[in-house]
């Protein structure tokens, strides 16, 4: 796993979020491209 993506996984875990590799990859790409990340689904 790329270092940046692993850092995102660990950072989210530290604040109580569970993120797998696909979610962390989407976050990484959104940050790198400076684009919003639209997420849908039930809260919780």
Short description:
This protein has about 45 residues and is mainly alpha-helical.
Largest sheet: none
Radius of gyration based on Cα positions? 11 Å
Q: Strand content of the residues, in percent?
A: under 5%
Give the % helix. Answer: 55-70%
Which class do the helix and strand fractions yield? mainly alpha
**Number of spatially distinct domains:** 1
What's the total number of strands? 0
Number of helices: 2
Overall pLDDT metric: 92
Q: Which oligomeric form is depicted?
A: single chain
N-end to C-end Cα span: 27 Å
What does the overall shape look like? globular
| SSE sequence, one letter per element | HH
Low-pLDDT stretches are none
Pick out its properties.
44 residues, mainly alpha, 2 helices, 57% helix, globular
Can you characterise this structure?
- With 44 residues, the chain is mainly alpha-helical.
- It has one domain.
- Helix content is 57%, strand content 0%.
- It contains 2 helices and no strands.
- The chain has helices at 3-14, 21-33.
- α1 (3-14) packs across α2.
- It is globular and about 30 Å long.
- It starts with a helix and ends in an 11-residue tail after the last helix.
- 7% of the residues are buried.
- The model has no long low-confidence stretch (mean pLDDT 92).
- This is ATPase.
Question: What's the structural blueprint in terms of helices and strands?
Answer:
Layout: H1 3-14, H2 21-33
Helix pairs in contact: 1-2
């Amino acid at each position: 796993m790329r270092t940046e993506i692993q850092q995102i996984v660990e950072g989210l875990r530290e604040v109580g979020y569970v993120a797998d590799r696909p979610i962390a990859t989407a976050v990484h790409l959104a940050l790198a491209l400076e684009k919003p990340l639209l997420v849908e689904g039930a809260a919780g």
